[in-house]
Each structure stands twice: as structure tokens, then as C-alpha cells.
Amino acid sequence: MLLHGIDVPSQIEHRNTLGIAWNDWSANGKVDCIITNPPFGGYEDDGVGSDYPADLKTRETADMFMALIIKKLLQENGRAAVVLPDGFLFGDGIKGTLKKLLLRDCKLHTIIRLPKGVFAPYTTIKTNLLFFTKGSMVDDGSEHFHTDTLWFYEHPYPAGYKSYSKTKPIRLDEFKPEQDWWGSEANNFSDRVENEFAWKVDFKAKREQAEAAAAPHRQRAEELNNAAAKLEGVAGDLRKSLVGSVDAAYREKIDAQIADLRAQAEPLRLQARDAQAAGDRIYWPIFNLDIKNPNTPEEEIHDPDLLLEKYKKLMGEIEKTENQLKSELAAALAHHFTAGQLE
Known about the structure:
Layout: E1 31-36, H1 61-73, E2 74-85, H2 86-90, H3 94-105, E3 106-113, E4 127-134, E5 149-154, H4 176-181, E6 198-202, H5 203-241, H6 248-283, H7 304-342
Parallel strand pairs: 1-2, 3-5
Antiparallel strand pairs: 2-4, 3-4, 5-6
């Protein structure tokens, strides 16, 4: 506070925000505006965040803060600007769940992609500025997304710079082009135009296409699970019929029927899992926000370290695609042979 010109700091509390229990946050604690650079790359101690909802439970600090901002701290129509690393943009798992929450409950309208070295020498991790507004609650039983269009702006290095450093830090006046381009949220940023640094993504179209493509897989998973549940229900009823029975022959007969029903249900559960996974592989990639600038031609890379990194990434993508194909083939074959056996 002293370094920022506040000579007599007062009403300052020193505490761990993440240490506050999830359910101890009240509606009175919500705010209109949040500007934050949450600590990233760190992990909280065991026990901190243990009462977070199961699908948001994590110990990574930046992820915990994002969950708090979206669900507990930002009130409806409240605005936020958050600094986050690239890992948040392309991460899956909890990060994928958080991004779905962000894009659904908030209008994520702008991501400023910063170059490397902004926080040098402390870290060389690339960072981003995420700007979003909390949407109004819609409770009609369906899933509503407040984010339709998402704008990206790639912040360039100043002329003559190849990186930032302690002696050559990023400067506020560098953001003048972004300020001139920004426009107004009141008219949904209709004045914005794409240029060599700015581009937009039609997230609504991507989401609807993914949902439509994933729907048959999810429908099949539901049908298979229902069929398995029906068989398991019959097995459960048979198990109940054994209560109090002392007839050994009858018990043996019923046990055999139960075993047969469960043997029929098990492959259905496996097929349902594979069908659900196939749908997820189509749906969840839409929450990968690590979207490169399509208006900039790809530079020829001569740095051997960068070339190696690019090669490893390419090989990883090839391996991932091969595994997906193997999984799809295995699921198809399993369905074929199981259907033949059931017939």
C-alpha cells in the first residue's frame, strides 16, 4: 500500500481468502467489480477448499479463486478482469469445468493475450487478461450460456523488443491500441473490428455444433445405461425374493438368474461408458480457449528448443488421435459382438 502511494493504510485485513469456508460466503459479500491477479502455479494446504462443490474441488490457487469469483464474489451484472496463465485456457479436468461455468454463468467477452516475459524475472509463463460480466440467473430447468461471441486481442511487443525484463517492463501506454479498439459493452461491442491483432470466435455456433454432434453418443449412453439399470433392477428384485427362503434348490436357481442378469448388464455399462466418452471427446474441446491468432502468418521457427517443443506437441496430438480411433473401434467391435451374443 505504501509503495502505491497510500501513506496511512487502514482497514486492511491480512488473511487467506481461500481459507474461508465455501458456505461462509454470503450474498452480502458480493461486489460490483473485481480486478485481480490471483496467485497461479501454487497449491493450497490440505484441508483448504475441502468443502468446495465436488466438481470444483481443487487445491490449485488460481482455479480456486476463479470458482470463488464466479460463484460467490461477483454479483449479477458485476464486472471482472482477471490475470490467468495459458494453462487455464487449454487445461481440462477442473479447468474445463471452470471454463464451462465461466462461459455459461458469465459473458466472457474479451481475452487479451499477453506475450512472454510480462512477469519476468519471476516467471516466463505467458499470461492473459480475461474480462467478463456476470449474467443474470435463469432458472427454467435448461442450460443457458451467457457467452455467445468471444473476442481475442494479441498484445504485441513494442518495436525493438523481443521480451520484457525488470529494466524493460510492460508499460501502460502500450495498451493504447486496445483502448482505442475496445468499444462499449452497452452495444455488445458492435464497433469492434478484426485486425492483425484482434479476432472473434463464434462460441455459440461452436457449442451448438458440438452439442448436436455429441447428442447421438450421449443418447446411446443413456439408452444403454437404462437397459443395464432395468436388468440390475430385475436382479435386485430376485435378490429380495430370497429373503427368508430356505429352499436350497430355489436359492441356487435364483442366484444363477441374478448372475446371468448381471453378466448381461456389465457389457451394457461398458458400452455406455464408451458412448459417453465419445460424446465428451466431441463436446469438451469447445472449452479450449487457447486459440491462436488466425490473422498472423505462422513465423518460420529456427530455435531448436521451440522446434522440439512443437514436434512433441504434434506427436502428442497424433498419439491422442490414434487412441481416440482405437477407443472408437474397440467400442464398435464390443457392441457388434455383444449384440451378436444377445441375439
